[in-house]
Amino acid sequence: MSNDERYLVVSTDGHCGADLYGYKPYLESQYHDEFDAWAASFSDGWGDLDTELEDFRVGVASYASDVNWVSAKRQDYIDKEGIAAEVLFPNTAPPFFPNNQVSASIPPVGGREYELRSAGLRAHNRWLVDFCKEVPGRRIGIAQTFLNDVDAAVKEIKWAHENGLKGVLLPPDTILQLSNLYYPRLEPIWQICEELGMPLHRHGIAPSEAASEETGIAAPAIGLFEFINFVYRPVVHLILAGVFDQHPNLRLVITEQGTTSLQPVITQMDGYVKHSREVNSISRYFSAPVVDNLKQMPSDYMRQNVYFGSFLDSGDIENRYNVGVDHVMWGADFPHHEGTVPFSREAMSLNFADLPEEETRKMLGLNAVEVYRLDREALQKVANDIGPTPEELRRPVDLDQIPESLRLLCNTFSGNAFSFHNEGE
């Protein structure tokens, strides 16, 4: 039986940030002189990439679009897409980061570079608090912090929660630096995140080195191709380190990395745990202290503690029962060109036209409402004005009306995971 109420849509994959000098007022004054020098040397490494559209460019090349920081212009796009609320990740370089990079290898703790980068992240968090306040209840800010100094990280997470931010972005893995999450010293971070209801997040990036005389022309391509190897690391680490046993209410959100690539890894992990519990197996020599203490199988933890956000392809829809319908959350990836804007309604139709309405409501918004503890009643009032109707999402989509660039870039329209495909397929 159909419910004619408009869908409450929450995009769990949005990006924003201040413009270059917009961060300065949010930076502690003792860093202002060094900020001015950093800003003066800033250069656009993405200037020639994906210039087809003014407001949308692929990945962080979209950092220069003012929809990252001009609230009214951004909200006009979001409302037209039928999105009641959006989860916000960074899209502009925080102060003192390398040119045009929202993530980079973390310098050693105790050095001046680490101090400056940490101050830059705090400035972004302060800016994000104010940006979210411009549309109360509809912007869900995700705080950034390094994990190297645990006490400082816990302090920043507490501050973020007190000021209305809703989650924590874990530092990424890159080709040059892995972010290992299994170290016992990180326990206070997991504890405070569980206590405050702050989900952990790992957002997909291209973990490449730049092409140079030293790295060669293959460096960017290798980083992008090996991206898939970095998807599952946080899940493996938190499961085998027993973090989800110690903190059963802790949540990990995997954003813009799909659901299908993790599935075979989880199946392999289940097999690994079973083999490691067999007497005299070679796996047991390495893994006995771990597997003997796990209360469940890895696939159980995935279905209880791990969530997935961003635009979906057909494989993600087919895989929804394996990861749990309650754990899949749609996202637009605004303002990235590989996202769904300005064709989000068509993307939703492609994903959900043939699905049960109850499942659609969960994946489009209600799962996110629960994960981020949002005000469902208030957001439904917004959705009643702008959200898509069930009838609208059942209409067929003419892919010829979608620009060719978007059909290639966005998995929803291409039908291919990561949009890697051969001509003629």
Helix and strand run: EHHEHEHEHEHHHHEHHHEHHEHHHHHH
The SS-based structural class is alpha/beta
Low-confidence runs: 418-425
Shape: globular
User: What's the β-strand tally?
Assistant: 8
Q: Which CATH top level class of the domain at 10-189 and 306-416 fits?
A: Alpha Beta
**Major sheet, described briefly?**
8 strands, parallel
CATH architecture of the domain at 10-189 and 306-416: Alpha-Beta Barrel
Folded structure, characterized:
The protein has 425 residues and is of the alpha/beta class. It has a domain at 10-189 and 306-416: TIM Barrel (Alpha-Beta Barrel). The protein is built from 20 helices and eight strands. The chain has helices at 32-40, 71-80, 112-133, 150-162, 187-196, 219-225, 227-231, 233-240, 243-246, 263-276, 282-291, 298-305, 314-318, 320-323, 344-352, 357-371, 376-386, 390-393, 404-409, 411-414, and strands spanning 10-16, 85-90, 139-144, 167-169, 200-203, 252-255, 306-309, 328-329. It has an eight-stranded parallel sheet with strand order 1-2-3-4-5-6-7-8. Helix 3 links the parallel strand 2 (85-90) and strand 3 (139-144). The two termini are 38 Å apart.
Observed structural traits:
single chain; 425 residues; alpha/beta; TIM Barrel; eight-stranded parallel β-sheet; 42% helix; 8% strand; globular; disordered C terminus
Quick summary:
The protein has 425 residues and is an alpha/beta fold. 42% of the residues lie in helices and 8% in strands.
